[in-house]
Specification:
Blueprint: E1 10-13, H1 22-37, H2 44-61, H3 67-81, H4 88-95, H5 107-115, E2 119-124, H6 128-135, E3 144-147, H7 148-151, H8 158-172, E4 179-182, H9 186-195, E5 199-200
Helix pairs in contact: 2-3, 3-4
C-alpha cells in the first residue's frame, strides 16, 4: 500500500543539493581560480562534473578527513585537472567557502511549515561547523543533526544510514517505517537509503 506523507513522523534531509544550493556555491567559489587563469572555456556544468568525480574519490580514500579539508584538496585537484596554477591561500579559501553557499529560495519557508508537523533531521556529508554555518540560512531548529564528522565516513557509505537509524531509534524512539528521507542525489542518498530500507522522496 502506498504511504502518504502524513503517515511519517520524521523527515530526514540531505542538506547540500537539497536545502543548500551547493552547485552555485561551488561554482562561485571557483571563480577566483578561473579568473586568475584567464580561461574562458571552463563551463559550470563541466566543472561541477569534475568536482563531483574528485570529491567522491577523496571521500572514499580519506573518510576521516573533515569536509573543509576535502574541499581544500579538491581545489588543488581541480587546478591540476585544468592545468591552472593555484596557491595554498586560494585552496584554503575554497575549503572555507561552505558558509557562503546559498540556500534555495524556498527552503526556509518550506522547512518552517514542515516543522509544524514533523520531526526534522539532517544527514549531511559535511562537518559540524560547516553545517552550523549553513543552518543559519535554513530558518528552523532541527531535531537531530548527523554529519560525516560524527559517523567517520561519507555517504554513500551504508554506515551513515545505519548511524542515522541507530541514533534516531535510541535518541528519539523513531522506527525506520516512520522515516521519509528527502534528497536530490541518487548516488549519495537514494541508492544507499533504499538499501537501508528507507522510504525516500
Amino acid at each position: 500500500m502506498t504511504k502518504r506523507l502524513s503517515d511519517y513522523t520524521t523527515l530526514t534531509f540531505d542538506c547540500y543539493g537539497t536545502l543548500i544550493d551547493w552547485e552555485s556555491g561551488i561554482w562561485d567559489a571557483l571563480q577566483p581560480l578561473i579568473a586568475a587563469s584567464g580561461r574562458d572555456d571552463i563551463t559550470r556544468a563541466e566543472a561541477l562534473v569534475s568536482f563531483a568525480r574528485f570529491e567522491s574519490a577523496r571521500q572514499a580514500q580519506t573518510p576521516e578527513m573533515l569536509y573543509p579539508e576535502i574541499l581544500t584538496h579538491l581545489h588543488g585537484d581541480l587546478a591540476r585537472h585544468y592545468d591552472i596554477a593555484t596557491t595554498s591561500d586560494m585552496n584554503a579559501a575554497f575549503g572555507a567557502s561552505i558558509d557562503q553557499w546559498p540556500a534555495f529560495p524556498d527552503t526556509a519557508d518550506a522547512l518552517r511549515r514542515l516543522k509544524q508537523r514533523y520531526r526534522l533531521v539532517i544527514l549531511s556529508n559535511v562537518n559540524r561547523a560547516g553545517f552550523a554555518a549553513s543552518n543559519r540560512k535554513l530558518g528552523v531548529a532541527f531535531d537531530a543533526i548527523y554529519t560525516a564528522e560524527d559517523v567517520g565516513s561519507y555517504k554513500p557509505n551504508r554506515r551513515n544510514f545505519d548511524y542515522l537509524l541507530e541514533h534516531l531509534a535510541a535518541e528519539h524512539r523513531v522506527a525506520p517505517g516512520e522515516i521519509l528521507h528527502t534528497a536530490q542525489s541518487l548516488f549519495h542518498d537514494h541508492v544507499p537509503a533504499t538499501r537501508a530500507g528507507l522510504a525516500k522522496a
